Amino acid sequence: AVPCWLPTGCRAGVVEVERSVTAVLGQDVVLPCRYRAQEREQVEQVTWLKRGPAGRSAEVAVLHRQHGEHVQEPYAGRVLRRAAGALEDGAIVLRN
After folding, report:
1. Chain segment 71-90, per-residue pLDDT in tens
2. Torsion (CA) 85, 33, 52, 27 in degrees, nearest 10
3. Mind listing the domains of the chain with CATH numbers?
């Protein structure tokens, strides 16, 4: 998801994600996330979280426009950005 704070009255784009993604054990899976920006909007950062027991979340990866990608250690080498370029496409690939 792409969380953001906007002043009251500002228009924002739409985050598009799949409600459900099917994966096959041992194969790569794409976790899609696309932001349909309004005029003059630009995505600065996309943060991927894994929801764990009791609703707690753990950070998996951060995609940042200027600072690049940072994947947390348990997921290093297994999480990749699907496409280079603007972060309006914030999809990741979870390998194997």
Report:
1. 999 999 999 999 888 899 99
2. -80
3. 25-94 (2.60.40.10)
